[in-house]
Amino acid sequence: MTEFFVAIAILLVTGLICAVILALVSKYFGVEEDERQVKVREALPGANCGACGYTGCDGYAEALAKGEAEPHLCVPGAKAVAEKIAEILGVEAGKVSEIMPYVHCNGVFGALERPVEFEGHPSCAIMSLASGGPTACKFSCLGGGDCAKVCPTDAICIKDGVARIDRRKCISCGACVKACPKHIIEMIPKGARVAVACSSCDPGAVARKNCKNACIGCKKCEKTCPHGAITVIDNLARIDYSKCTGCGACAEVCPTGCIKEKP
Q1: Which helix (H) or strand (E) holds 181?
Q2: CATH level 3 topology of 35-89
Q3: d(C-alpha 17, C-alpha 32), whole Å
Q4: Mean pLDDT by 10-residue block, N- to C-terminus, for the chain (263 residues)?
């Protein structure tokens, strides 16, 4: 019985000594956490999307606390978060870029030729390795849903073979942009009134043969735009949003309807 109590006493003393050592180590060798970093991290939305250019919200908060980053880089948090961070750090919030992803494709079923039937696990990354994909247009959305799989808010679905983005759910993290192997998803201004729903760089006749909704590079939009905001490059109409006023003139003259109003 004595041996039992002795063993218990040894364990208690050992535990006490370890606790004291840990307390001393924590006090004298521990890294003191920056209070501002903690407050900044609490102000961030926690999406951990990496749109700011840092390794998630923790990395961005650390960079902000060290004065190595600007407060306006959190796209999901937008203006409200930028102003909160600026208040915590005592700096200017800066101009926030309010952007959102847009799928530059309208190759829906019935419009886009699909000469090959893909069998297997639906994946855009896998399909794109097979001669650019199973569709006639090598610039089209493949409909495998890689963008939908990485979306943290379920804002993307595949409808009629094309990825569609729900603006109400989207937090503009940009994960879909990175996931698309065709690079047809682009971040455009949230206030954009028009967008080109095509990514084909094929000559007009070829593009139209592959997809009825394709841009044919006719330049009618370019000639009609009163502000010089549209230029046809490599057979594809491209919009300079710094010049675009959203008048809709380009959409009205587009013969294939590939320029969409209120994207």
Answers
A1: none
A2: 3-methyladenine DNA Glycosylase II; Chain A, domain 3 (1.10.15)
A3: 24
A4: 60 66 59 76 85 86 90 87 90 85 95 74 83 83 94 94 94 92 94 96 96 97 96 97 95 96 83
β-strands 99-103, 185-189: how paired?
antiparallel
Please check whether residue 165 is in contact with residue 197, taking contact to mean a CB–CB distance below 8 angstroms: no
Whether the pTM exceeds 0.70: the reply is yes
Q: How far is CA 185 from the centre of its chain?
A: 9
Given this model, what pLDDT does residue 116 score?
Answer: 66
* Per-residue confidence (pLDDT) for residue 1, from 0 to 100: 56
Residues of the chain with CATH 1.10.15.40: 35-89
d(CA 23, CA 143): 56
**Dihedral (Cα; 57, 61, 67, 69), 10-degree rounding:** 10
pLDDT at 251: 96
The confidence score (pLDDT) of residue 56 equals 86
Fold of 99-261: Alpha-Beta Plaits (3.30.70)
Each as own residue / partner, the long-range contacts of residues 178-181 (CB below 8 Å, 24 or more positions apart, any chain) are 178/150, 179/124, 179/146, 179/147, 179/149, 179/150, 180/124, 180/146, 180/147, 181/124, 181/125, 181/128, 181/142, 181/146
- Report the alpha-carbon angle 124-126-131, nearest 5: 95
Which regions of the chain does DSSP assign to beta strands (E)? 99-103, 156-159, 162-165, 185-189, 194-196, 230-233, 236-239, 259-261
> What are the start-end ranges of the H helices in 91-203?
124-129, 146-150, 175-179
3-state secondary structure of 189: strand
Domain with CATH 3.30.70.20 in the chain: 99-261
Backbone angles phi, psi at 63, to 5 degrees: -65, -35
